[in-house]
Give the backbone structure.
Amino acid sequence: MNGTLSQALKDRIAGLAAGYPEPAAGLLPVLHLVQAEMGWIPPEAEREVAEILGLRSIQVREAVTFYSLFRHRPGGRHHVRVCRALSCTLRGSEPVWRRLRERLGIRSGETTPDGRISLEEVECLGNCDNAPCVLIDFEEHARVTPDEIDRILEGLD
Amino acid sequence: MKAPVKLKTVKALEQAVEAQKKLRQADKKPVLTVSAGTCGQARGALKVVEALQTALKKAKLDKKVKIRVTGCHGFCEAEPNVLVHPHDLFYQKVDPANADTIVLETLKKNRTIKALLYKDPVTGKTAPREKAIPFYKKQRRVVLGDNALIDPTQIDDYLAIGGYGALAKVLGKMTPEAVIAEVKTAGLRGRGGAGFPTGVKWEMARSQKGTPKYIICNADEGDPGAYMDRSLLEGNPHRVLEGMLIGGFAIGACEGIIFVRDEYPLAVKHVSLAVEELRKRGLLGSDILGTGFSFDIRIVKGAGAFVCGEETALIASIEGLVGEPRQRPPFPAEKGLNGKPTVINNVETWGNVPLILGKGGAWYAKIGTEKSKGTKIFSLVGKINNTGLVEVPMGTTLREIIFDIGGGIPGGRKFKAVQTGGPSGGCLPTSKLDLPIDYESLTAASAIMGSGGMIVMDDKTCMVDIAKYFLNFLRDESCGKCVSCREGTQRMYEIVTRISEGKGKVGDIELLEELAAAVKDASMCNLGITAANPILSTLRYFKREYEAHIKEKRCPAGVCKSLIRFTVLPDKCTGCLACKRACPNDCIHGTLREVHNIDQEKCIKCGACYEACRFEAVEAQRDEAIVILEGVK
Ligand SMILES: Cc1cc2nc3c(=O)[nH]c(=O)nc-3n(C[C@H](O)[C@H](O)[C@H](O)COP(=O)(O)O)c2cc1C
Ligand code: SF4
Ligand code: SF4
Ligand code: FES
């Protein structure tokens, strides 16, 4: 996989960064942009981001590894996030989680070999009234049951 | 539509508010209000909106009836709900299929649809109006209540309920000092956790010499179980922005930053729209309303690190650094963003500010208790009948919140504990139900107010397991800078895990207490300082449960897997098949109306059968194998 930034993306990054008086202040917004466009943040992209912002590569690396939202490995076409926080656990996220792992044959942080789905356990998604809740890409699924998981998975390409 | 006019004077803003108020009063059209925050949308609210639009068109009423799409109304249990005005009806759990009936029956024929009304699970009585529903009765929704009145994407809706009136008053008639004095009179304290007096913080920042000054809105809401900030930002972004404008003026700041979780896409969208709208109307930018006050707001998205909710870590994060806390003092009010004086407040704190300046600090100070003023929004979640957001005056008791408003515990089970304050908080037992809650009372009871998450637990919850959950959370989220926090949370987690596996030793409780004290003393930020709270509060109120795990190798609640085996009690089993259906591993044998049986070899101890049985026929027994093992050693 080619991990370098396209010229168009480089231009957008430079444009975005120009809005900040301190170059470092643009780092989080820029990393969000790169991930939104590329699905993850490849090492080559880290270096290029550092160059455009005038930061040291290590500074970008640190940010990418510190913040759990940034992915330093490519993800699947769909990103399934399961809330494993307390309210969801109390309302049955465990069986949902187990069903997902069984059906996909992967663990948290992994991607199915066909590149279709990556699975992730997450802390509270702020949707506790709909516990247990599962976030698929940017769609919230409320009060999910194990049987619904089967149906939801079928609907993903 | 006309391009919005840029407002150039305070008078023009006042007139705009009055004009919108009049427009709304004069508008006699019926309104269908659909609650469509993240919670409503996840349950299909937007499909309901679409269906209502189609139904109105079919009935040729689309020009005569207004549909208002709003944020969350708090009663998440009843989502998606539709309010019908002027009929004053509250329809709950509405399905797109109900749209035609609502239009034809209620709007055309003035008939109430009984099937859509709230029904009290205890008395079976229906309640047509919001006010008659027990969930709303004891609440005082001075902050969150407006969510139901406005479309958050329409600034005119906010103006129509008097929004930005407080800003007009501040910019037109008040000095920054007078604004701060008003906030002090109100007695407002931070809603983000520690309860620091807001006016004092503002005064500290105002008195600093350094410029420029900044203000920050902390919308990083990370406590498990808390989502009131999301709901407020999503459902009423202008309320928060008005608070920030007033704060910026009071402190003499030039810029405000909203730091919001990336997991809140709808909040990001609504608040971004609102900021754009303010710029267009001339309420952000240079020389606002010709008063010489220049102020702008930008939005920064977080990137998933719980510790970034801590103010110094959050500031580092905005600066593009790794989000680790730093030593305080200096406090952000002295040296914050870019080393300049910075006031950082929570979303709900900002949301209270327009109310105080609008109605006066003295008015505000009448709500609440002696030291904790105003209302507090709690998210009531977990094992509770009415999940949702609850806004009550400070001083309301836990019992009122959990039983009167929350409707008690589902499935006929018993209340065991409520967890408040997130990972820094604690678990309170039945004996504390009559505690009137405010900052001080909660702290004295080994819990804290925190940001307002209230996770209710029933008698099938194991408190050792809960402590383990929080310690796991904290060891994961510790940024690792302080050894005490990094190693201490890890050690405590290991000990509690051992206890939950039946490998606990006499002396473990004392060891936990010692570690707790060490972590508290030697850690820098509140994550570490308060990391032992979940342990200390469960030890204080549920010590016997720990002892049962340690000495008797028994989990009384039947949760800790290593300590239990599930069996069916023949004399209680009705052969209803519920457990068999719930079992993911096909290890329950039995046919209808026959006593069921669990194949212990295959059982993975998930507890699904235990949860599913309505006759208490599945028992979580102490696993004798462990006792024997211990005996050999
Ligand atoms: C680990 C940690 C996480 C925190 N998370 C939040 C948060 O998500 N939201 C928040 O408003 N305050 C949070 N705080 C509290 C902030 O540090 C700060 O006190 C607060 O934003 C100040 O606002 P207030 O005075 O209006 O409460 C957190 C503190 C710690 C130690
Ligand atoms: S107390 Fe914990 S989270 Fe806070 S700075 Fe120290 S290591 Fe980091
Ligand atoms: S505990 Fe789980 S696996 Fe075991 S019998 Fe019950 S439902 Fe089946
Ligand atoms: S606990 Fe799962 S969304 Fe909050």
In short: The pocket of iron/sulfur cluster (ligand 2) is lined by residues B 307, 325, 478-482, 485-486, 523-525, 527-528 (CB under 6 Å). Chain A has seven helices and four strands. The beta strands of chain A are 78-83, 117-122, 134-136, 139-141. Helices of chain A lie at 7-18, 27-38, 43-53, 57-66, 86-90, 93-104, 146-154.
